[in-house]
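Before relying on records like the one below, remember that each one covers exactly one chain. Contacts with other chains, cofactors or solvent are not represented anywhere in the record.
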Amino acid sequence: MTAVLETRSLSRSFGAIKAVDNVSFSLVKGELLAMIGPNGAGKSTCFNLLMGQLSPSAGEVFLNGQNIVGLKPRQIWRRGVGRTFQITGTYSSMTVIENVQIALVSHHGKTFSIWP
């Protein structure tokens, strides 16, 4: 079965500090994968590499067989890769449905368009 998301020898260093060192995994459709470890183990850095917020020092990230290293975070997001954070933000002055609508409008690239 073809991997939906795959990393090969993914690494990121900050000077002499190796935050992510030679991480390889593949994830096929329908599979769940967990990344666990103590604070400072490099989990957030790894996710930042997957999402394009950071560039790897070495290694590759593939989405549906296409190397996505070097793409901007919004380009990766538009391909269907998302991320959530422990602390989420919503617009408290809006209803739940309005908050969801904002996310959908943003996902479909209509954020700055006046036409539906």
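Residues 3-78 form a domain with the Rossmann fold fold (CATH 3.40.50.300).
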